[in-house]
Amino acid sequence: MHRTERLYRLQCTDSEFDRLTRRLQEVEASLGETEELRQAHLDLQTVEQELHRLQARLRDLELENASLADKLEANEQRLYGGTVRNPKELTSLQEENEYLRRRKSQFEDVILEVMIEVEESQEQAHSARAHLAQVEERWRAEQERLTAERAELQASLAALSEKRQALRAAIPPDDLETYDDLRRRKGGQAVALLQEGTCQGCRVSLPSSKAQQVRQGDVLVFCGSCGRILYTR
Length: 233
Ligand SMILES: [Zn+2]
Known about the structure:
By secondary structure, this protein is mostly helical. It has 2 domains: 31-169, Methane Monooxygenase Hydroxylase, Chain G, domain 1 (Up-down Bundle); 172-231, no CATH class. It contains 5 helices and 3 strands. The protein has helices at 3-30, 35-80, 87-169, 173-185, 208-216, and strands at 191-195, 198-199, 229-231. Strands 2-1-3 form a 3-stranded mixed beta sheet. The longest helix is centred in the middle third of the chain and has 83 residues, at 87-169. Zinc ion (ZN) binds at residues 192, 199, 201-202, 204, 223, 225-226, 228.
């Protein structure tokens, strides 16, 4: 294997390693609770709180209505029971009776309104629960997929790491130093392919004499424009 071919193969391995490392970071960032799931939980919590508030209000209203019914019953027993004969007292009982009836009728209207609100709120809670279940199911499937992908990436990275070590062991230290230095300075790409006289690292055309040197592969030839080591297949 030519000197530059070894470096080129190391470059391919390193580039693949970098690519998979970036993907692994993305995968790890996507694991765990998502914004969509958090929002679905929050929405359900909000509608359930409102439902509980309405249900408590309805219970209070029904209790008050029952106590009003008791008062009305007591009033009517006195009013029609025949024990009260004083006309003034009877008039006052009559007035109280009318007042209690009016109150009760108003109460019943409010109870009806709140019952409708409770029903609507129950529907909202139902659809929020259904939505959450749907989001959770999708989320769980996605988490499973991501967890499997993470394991695959970790295995591939371990294999690439071994391959990289084997490749490096066969490259002279001076070349490795040049390569590592260029990788650091050139965004991870130290070796560029020369295709049809053009450096694929910077897309600049090179003189044919240079292409000739590159083809021999025994000396390191650098792109005059971007400075990368050139390699041609
Ligand atoms: Zn170049």
